[in-house]
Amino acid sequence: MRSEDRAEIRSLGLFRNMTTANFDAMMHAAYAQEFPAQLQLVRQGSRATFLHVLVEGSIELFSEWQGRDSTMAILRPVSSFILAACIRDAPHLMSARTLEASRVVLIPSADLRAAFRRDADFAVDVVEELARCYRSMVRHTKSLKLRSARERLAAYLLKLSVRNGNAAGFALPYEKRLIASYLGITPESLSRALKALAAEGVHVQGTRVTLTDRDRLAALAGLDELMD
Amino acid sequence: MRSEDRAEIRSLGLFRNMTTANFDAMMHAAYAQEFPAQLQLVRQGSRATFLHVLVEGSIELFSEWQGRDSTMAILRPVSSFILAACIRDAPHLMSARTLEASRVVLIPSADLRAAFRRDADFAVDVVEELARCYRSMVRHTKSLKLRSARERLAAYLLKLSVRNGNAAGFALPYEKRLIASYLGITPESLSRALKALAAEGVHVQGTRVTLTDRDRLAALAGLDELMD
DNA sequence: CGACTGATTGAAAGTGGTCAACAAAAGTGG
DNA sequence: CCACTTTTGTTGACCACTTTCAATCAGTCG
């Protein structure tokens, strides 16, 4: 593994506080790997054998059922994923695939669990990371159940703007079909919803978005500390 | 606190493996309390100060936004709740209220965190419990995003049947309005969806449900290990 | 009994989905 | 680099499902 990967992982919230001895032991059998775009890394239903840490690129977590599928989360570096399945040593509930060429570090879940038992500081960080993931899923579910499609989209656009330093203009970071699936609607509905938001000062050309009436949009989105 | 409450909590998966010394220390400031029905125990946005353990009765976890609300989970004894907020020491994302008269044990979250640091066996159990909660929320979200309302209802009825020993007839355990909210639809829609399921052999009279064609219903519900 | 809450039903409206056609981009291979 | 293919995005027409609102019915509880 590249030493900068190692350093980057070490500096992740998850691994920052563990002792060097435990970190080294845990990483002993870990390895980094490059994956091309659109490669499925995890298949739902399979057993968790490695904790994955995304170092470069981006990852989609999605679920499948009866030929349908839905995007559950979109991950950016540096973040771990499938922590819960590793801990429970249970089948994955979600699949994962790369959205672009990505670099992922794989840590054997048995070594993760051993480190957890040996190092209380690490245990604290693991449980905090997992709590973060849980709360993130709760937020996603709340948005699905409490907001309409248009409201979800409005909130999503505002969050993108915030991520870009409150810019009025920014580019959509992913394909629209992916965003649609994440928001729980079809691509056609997204296309129409974007047009409908022109009334709230949203203008879209290709991947380029411009917000001309932030207040109106915010009123519709109703951004909430407890949901967004 | 009643000694049987204490014993019951001690035998919970969460607390079974910790040392007696740590259990006693953690429970030192804990206390049990009876609450009447329909009492709100937790308000979303407030700070987590106690881990709650439901010993008797039932609890609804729900979320509110802009005057709307939605049932996120329904808990039965014995189960803990708001573990994630305790761990993160963060505002609750969900509110909680009793559905019926309930008995709840309250453990100061600071004591919980202290026990977590001192006792690796307990730490393992906490993280497993949290992973269970996370996975439960993932399942709920999958069902919302991948299934239609009718499919969700079919799956819900089949799960109720399983819970009743695969009985063909059983009573709905909660008010229909609550079930509707949990399934992400209005009470009116639930009423109509139940009627529509007559085609799959579902017959309802009041709270009494009878399934006369399990196979047809199962085909619609598409029960799945990774979602149900 | 009368008041209240929850459940059902009907009618109307709205929202989002499906299907099909087409346009626009992006990727592929000569 | 260009032509071709494939994928992604948009638009229209139509439909299914769900919600909303209102009225009614059915229990429950003082």
Automatic annotation (TrEMBL), chains A, B:
Cyclic nucleotide-binding domain boundaries: 14-133
Record-linked Gene3D superfamilies: Jelly Rolls, Winged helix-like DNA-binding domain superfamily/Winged helix DNA-binding domain
Note the superkingdom of the native organism.
Bacteria
Q: Which InterPro entries match?
A: cNMP-bd_dom (IPR000595), cNMP-bd_dom_sf (IPR018490), Env_Response_Regulators (IPR050397), HTH_CRP (IPR012318), RmlC-like_jellyroll (IPR014710), WH-like_DNA-bd_sf (IPR036388), WH_DNA-bd_sf (IPR036390)
Q: What CDD domains does this protein map onto?
A: CAP_ED (cd00038)
Pfam family name, one:
HTH_Crp_2
One GO MF term on file is: DNA-binding transcription factor activity
Record flagged with keyword Transport: no
Q: Which SUPFAM superfamilies match?
A: cAMP-binding domain-like, Winged helix' DNA-binding domain
According to the UniProt record, one GO cellular component term is: cytosol
| HTH crp-type domain span | 147-215
Q: Which UniProt keywords apply?
A: DNA-binding, Transcription, Transcription regulation
**SMART domains per the UniProt record, alphabetical:** HTH_CRP
Please name the PANTHER family in this protein's record.
CRP FAMILY TRANSCRIPTIONAL REGULATORY PROTEIN (PTHR24567), REGULATORY PROTEIN YEIL (PTHR24567:SF26)
Which protein, by its recorded name, is this? Answer: Transcriptional regulator
